[in-house]
Amino acid sequence: MFYNGFYPHYDLAGRIQHTKLDTGVGDMPSARMGRVETPETQDFKQVLSGLVENFNTELNAPDNLLKDAMSGSMNVDIHDVMTAMAKSEISVNIATQITGKVIQAYDKVMQIQV
Prior knowledge:
This protein is mostly helical.
């Protein structure tokens, strides 16, 4: 798999944990594996602010591309503008749905009687 010049390399054999339950047949490693990735947790505020910043860039991208296309820039095509507009529309729909779900969750929490 090739992604933006990055070839992922996985050392699966090095991540296998050997236990008493190993088969012990030749050099066959155990089928039990440890955790592949280490979770890097951020607080809720950082995640939400990152989403808002990405949302703002997605909303401003079609305007910027349209200005470049109208000024005659050869780097921008009308297809790029249309793609950016579709992305921003999807971002608005997702943000609207997330906002609705957060409000529903808040209402449910407020209805809990202690």
